[in-house]
Amino acid sequence: MTSTTQAHSTHRSNVLIIGGGQSGLALGYYLARRGQQFTILDGGSEIGHMWRNRWESLQLITPCPYNNLPGMDFEGPAWSFPHKDQVADYLVRYAKKFSIPVQTNHKVSSLRRVGENYQAETNQGVFEAPVVVLATGPYHEPRIPDAARGADERVVQMHSKDYRSSKQMPAGEDVLVVGCGNSGAGIAQDLARTHKVHLALGRTAWLRRRILGRDLFWWAHLLGLPRVTADSRLGSRMKHQPDEVIGTTPERLAAEHGIKLQSRVVAVDGNEVRFADGTQHRFGAIVWATGYRPSYPWVHVPVFTEEGAPQHQRGVTSSPGLYFLGLKWLYYFDSSLLGGVGRDAAFIDQEIASYLSTRAPNKVAHSAAIP
């Protein structure tokens, strides 16, 4: 594996993976199994940092049996829902078990194609490879509505990305959570323990946790939903539907947690929020659980739409040797989920092998292939 020497030096490898989360690790598993030489860079201080830096009470919506990366089961009671730190710990164990080295604290500031290779500039030198995989996940730049600009200094505002616990909220003040995907519903429930919480509902599908005594994901896997592809008739419909909130309903949020349901936010003026039904209310804090938009300002390769979304076919871009991994609906319904990234990683691994077979690859090999 390429070792880091002094800053500003150039490090060369056959494959460069940018992002050491679940997608990058899954691909590393397959590359290592083939004895392919590769480098994984991650900007965080430790493996699993993206999971550790979420709100304190966060749990997965997927039960343990459906959170496996290739080659290693996610340990835990069969129908329990892992805490975020359990996921981070699992990623650490995974990298250790398969000797997948992740170079942390490597922040990539620029990626360019130079001749037949790619060059990534980082805070710890330049990395060069004929193959680059962008495995930085689906969550980049927080999407915050224009209405947020109308709030004044009396209102504590943050995106769900920055929410950790109710301690960040002003004591005794009403809190508004805007956006009701799984994050919005989860944060609203977390805050309701200490604050009066209002939840502004949007276009959301609500799904029961259990059906006929079985978990929703048991039924989903029985019916083959995780393997629905983006280019299928069903997939083309599903990927344009709103995200589903699993395991609760607006009525339960109100009855069990005392959360007041509101209609869509139309304006914010000072500390007063106006809703689509004509009502208004004053708040001391607003959490915008309004999703993310893709953001790759550091990638200087023309593989994006005018809106900045990645352009690819099953993760393969029009730029030779450049791939995406871990995006929502990369190819499958569960392409961005912990238990779904493995299938896409296996496919990208084979694409990389095919591409490198047409070149004169570096002679350096990974020190130990996974049996």
Automatic annotation (TrEMBL):
InterPro entries: Auxin_biosynth/cation_transpt (IPR050982), FAD/NAD-bd_sf (IPR036188). This is Pyridine nucleotide-disulfide oxidoreductase. Keywords: Oxidoreductase. It comes from Melittangium boletus DSM 14713. It comes from the Bacteria. SUPFAM superfamilies: FAD/NAD(P)-binding domain. One of its GO terms (molecular function) is monooxygenase activity. It holds the Pfam family Pyr_redox_3.
